[in-house]
Amino acid sequence: MHPNRSGVHFLSSYPVIRSLIRSSGVGPGDLVIDFGAGPGTITAPLAAAGPRVLAIERDDRFVRELHRRFAAQPSVRIVHADLRTVPLPSRDFSVVASIPYAVSTLLVRRLLSRPRRSLVGADLVVEWGFARRIAAGDTKETASWARRFDIRVARRIPASCFRPAPRVDSAHLVIRRR
Protein backbone atom coordinates (compact mmCIF):
# COMPACT_ATOMS: atom_id res chain seq x y z
CA MET A 1 0.00 0.00 0.00
CA HIS A 2 1.37 3.40 -1.01
CA PRO A 3 1.24 6.28 1.45
CA ASN A 4 -1.26 9.01 0.59
CA ARG A 5 1.08 12.00 0.67
CA SER A 6 -1.58 14.44 -0.54
CA GLY A 7 -3.98 13.64 2.30
CA VAL A 8 -6.85 13.74 -0.21
CA HIS A 9 -9.58 11.09 0.06
CA PHE A 10 -12.25 10.95 -2.63
CA LEU A 11 -15.75 9.78 -1.82
CA SER A 12 -16.22 6.92 -4.27
CA SER A 13 -19.50 5.36 -3.12
CA TYR A 14 -22.27 6.30 -5.54
CA PRO A 15 -25.02 5.15 -3.12
CA VAL A 16 -23.61 7.58 -0.51
CA ILE A 17 -23.38 10.39 -3.09
CA ARG A 18 -26.98 9.77 -4.23
CA SER A 19 -28.13 9.78 -0.61
CA LEU A 20 -26.41 13.15 0.02
CA ILE A 21 -28.14 14.70 -3.00
CA ARG A 22 -31.52 13.18 -2.16
CA SER A 23 -31.22 14.40 1.44
CA SER A 24 -30.38 17.94 0.28
CA GLY A 25 -33.62 18.24 -1.69
CA VAL A 26 -31.94 20.52 -4.24
CA GLY A 27 -33.45 20.85 -7.69
CA PRO A 28 -34.15 23.25 -10.54
CA GLY A 29 -33.90 26.90 -9.51
CA ASP A 30 -31.63 26.19 -6.53
CA LEU A 31 -28.02 27.28 -6.15
CA VAL A 32 -25.74 24.65 -4.63
CA ILE A 33 -22.01 24.63 -3.87
CA ASP A 34 -19.69 21.64 -4.09
CA PHE A 35 -16.67 22.71 -2.01
CA GLY A 36 -13.45 20.87 -2.89
CA ALA A 37 -15.04 19.47 -6.06
CA GLY A 38 -11.93 17.46 -7.05
CA PRO A 39 -12.66 15.47 -10.23
CA GLY A 40 -16.40 16.19 -10.01
CA THR A 41 -17.57 12.97 -8.38
CA ILE A 42 -20.35 14.84 -6.54
CA THR A 43 -20.65 17.70 -9.03
CA ALA A 44 -21.90 15.50 -11.91
CA PRO A 45 -24.81 13.79 -10.13
CA LEU A 46 -25.60 17.07 -8.38
CA ALA A 47 -25.90 18.86 -11.74
CA ALA A 48 -28.11 16.02 -13.00
CA ALA A 49 -30.59 16.87 -10.21
CA GLY A 50 -31.15 20.25 -11.90
CA PRO A 51 -29.75 23.02 -9.67
CA ARG A 52 -27.12 25.59 -10.63
CA VAL A 53 -23.84 24.23 -9.27
CA LEU A 54 -20.75 26.15 -8.19
CA ALA A 55 -17.86 23.69 -8.13
CA ILE A 56 -15.17 25.25 -5.94
CA GLU A 57 -11.69 23.76 -6.40
CA ARG A 58 -8.20 25.13 -5.77
CA ASP A 59 -6.04 22.42 -7.36
CA ASP A 60 -5.01 23.47 -10.91
CA ARG A 61 -5.11 19.93 -12.24
CA PHE A 62 -8.64 19.31 -11.02
CA VAL A 63 -9.79 22.72 -12.23
CA ARG A 64 -8.63 21.84 -15.76
CA GLU A 65 -10.35 18.45 -15.53
CA LEU A 66 -13.58 20.06 -14.28
CA HIS A 67 -13.54 22.62 -17.12
CA ARG A 68 -13.17 19.81 -19.67
CA ARG A 69 -15.78 17.61 -18.02
CA PHE A 70 -18.46 20.30 -17.63
CA ALA A 71 -17.72 22.54 -20.65
CA ALA A 72 -21.08 21.68 -22.23
CA GLN A 73 -23.08 22.15 -19.01
CA PRO A 74 -24.03 25.81 -18.49
CA SER A 75 -25.62 24.96 -15.12
CA VAL A 76 -22.16 24.13 -13.71
CA ARG A 77 -19.73 26.95 -12.99
CA ILE A 78 -16.17 26.01 -12.07
CA VAL A 79 -14.59 28.42 -9.58
CA HIS A 80 -10.81 28.19 -9.20
CA ALA A 81 -10.53 29.30 -5.58
CA ASP A 82 -9.74 28.21 -2.05
CA LEU A 83 -12.86 27.24 -0.09
CA ARG A 84 -11.43 29.05 2.92
CA THR A 85 -11.57 32.44 1.21
CA VAL A 86 -13.91 32.24 -1.79
CA PRO A 87 -16.77 34.76 -1.42
CA LEU A 88 -20.04 33.08 -0.46
CA PRO A 89 -23.25 33.90 -2.35
CA SER A 90 -25.50 36.63 -0.99
CA ARG A 91 -28.60 34.80 -2.28
CA ASP A 92 -29.97 31.60 -0.76
CA PHE A 93 -27.74 28.59 -1.40
CA SER A 94 -27.18 25.02 -0.28
CA VAL A 95 -24.01 22.99 0.04
CA VAL A 96 -23.49 19.36 -0.91
CA ALA A 97 -19.86 18.39 -0.52
CA SER A 98 -17.28 16.01 0.84
CA ILE A 99 -14.98 18.53 2.44
CA PRO A 100 -11.33 18.10 3.42
CA TYR A 101 -11.03 17.13 7.09
CA ALA A 102 -8.29 19.72 7.63
CA VAL A 103 -10.59 22.66 6.85
CA SER A 104 -13.89 21.34 8.25
CA THR A 105 -13.97 23.61 11.29
CA LEU A 106 -13.09 26.69 9.28
CA LEU A 107 -15.67 25.97 6.56
CA VAL A 108 -18.51 25.10 8.95
CA ARG A 109 -17.71 28.24 10.94
CA ARG A 110 -17.82 30.32 7.71
CA LEU A 111 -21.17 28.81 6.74
CA LEU A 112 -22.90 28.97 10.13
CA SER A 113 -21.52 32.17 11.64
CA ARG A 114 -22.58 34.52 8.86
CA PRO A 115 -24.97 37.25 9.96
CA ARG A 116 -26.99 36.99 6.74
CA ARG A 117 -29.21 33.96 6.53
CA SER A 118 -28.31 32.86 2.99
CA LEU A 119 -27.34 29.25 3.83
CA VAL A 120 -30.49 27.17 3.36
CA GLY A 121 -28.89 23.84 4.17
CA ALA A 122 -25.82 21.68 3.90
CA ASP A 123 -25.21 17.99 3.42
CA LEU A 124 -21.55 17.53 4.27
CA VAL A 125 -19.25 14.55 4.44
CA VAL A 126 -16.93 15.23 7.37
CA GLU A 127 -14.84 13.24 9.84
CA TRP A 128 -17.05 11.18 12.21
CA GLY A 129 -15.80 12.67 15.50
CA PHE A 130 -16.07 16.22 14.13
CA ALA A 131 -19.69 15.62 13.07
CA ARG A 132 -20.62 14.29 16.51
CA ARG A 133 -19.02 17.31 18.24
CA ILE A 134 -20.82 19.81 15.97
CA ALA A 135 -24.18 18.07 16.34
CA ALA A 136 -23.87 17.84 20.14
CA GLY A 137 -24.15 21.63 20.47
CA ASP A 138 -22.36 21.59 23.80
CA THR A 139 -19.98 24.50 23.25
CA LYS A 140 -20.95 28.17 23.22
CA GLU A 141 -20.28 28.34 19.48
CA THR A 142 -22.15 25.16 18.50
CA ALA A 143 -25.04 26.10 20.79
CA SER A 144 -25.34 29.45 19.01
CA TRP A 145 -25.43 27.64 15.67
CA ALA A 146 -28.11 25.28 16.97
CA ARG A 147 -30.40 28.25 17.66
CA ARG A 148 -30.41 29.10 13.94
CA PHE A 149 -29.84 25.68 12.38
CA ASP A 150 -31.00 22.12 12.89
CA ILE A 151 -27.74 20.13 12.95
CA ARG A 152 -27.69 16.33 13.02
CA VAL A 153 -25.64 13.33 11.99
CA ALA A 154 -27.62 11.41 9.36
CA ARG A 155 -25.33 8.40 9.13
CA ARG A 156 -21.86 7.04 9.58
CA ILE A 157 -19.89 6.60 6.33
CA PRO A 158 -17.28 3.85 6.47
CA ALA A 159 -13.71 4.67 5.44
CA SER A 160 -14.08 2.00 2.73
CA CYS A 161 -16.36 4.42 0.81
CA PHE A 162 -13.29 6.54 -0.10
CA ARG A 163 -10.28 6.14 -2.39
CA PRO A 164 -7.82 5.97 -0.81
CA ALA A 165 -9.51 5.08 2.45
CA PRO A 166 -8.81 7.49 5.33
CA ARG A 167 -7.84 6.13 8.75
CA VAL A 168 -11.20 7.08 10.27
CA ASP A 169 -14.86 6.88 9.32
CA SER A 170 -16.79 9.89 8.13
CA ALA A 171 -20.34 11.12 8.67
CA HIS A 172 -23.13 12.67 6.66
CA LEU A 173 -23.73 15.89 8.60
CA VAL A 174 -27.08 17.53 7.83
CA ILE A 175 -27.56 21.23 8.51
CA ARG A 176 -30.88 23.01 7.87
CA ARG A 177 -31.82 26.63 8.50
CA ARG A 178 -34.59 26.88 11.08
TrEMBL record:
**Matching SUPFAM superfamilies:** S-adenosyl-L-methionine-dependent methyltransferases
List UniProt keywords, sorted A-Z: Methyltransferase, RNA-binding, S-adenosyl-L-methionine, Transferase
The residues the record assigns to binding S-adenosyl-L-methionine are H9, L11, G36, E57, D82, S98
GO MF annotations in UniProt: RNA binding; rRNA (adenine-N6,N6-)-dimethyltransferase activity
Tell me where in this chain the Ribosomal RNA adenine methylase transferase N-terminal domain is found: 16-178
Q: Which domain of life is it from?
A: Bacteria
Q: Which family does it belong to?
A: Belongs to the class I-like SAM-binding methyltransferase superfamily. rRNA adenine N(6)-methyltransferase family.
Protein name (Swiss-Prot/TrEMBL): 23S rRNA (Adenine-N6)-dimethyltransferase
What is the protein's species of origin? Actinocrispum wychmicini
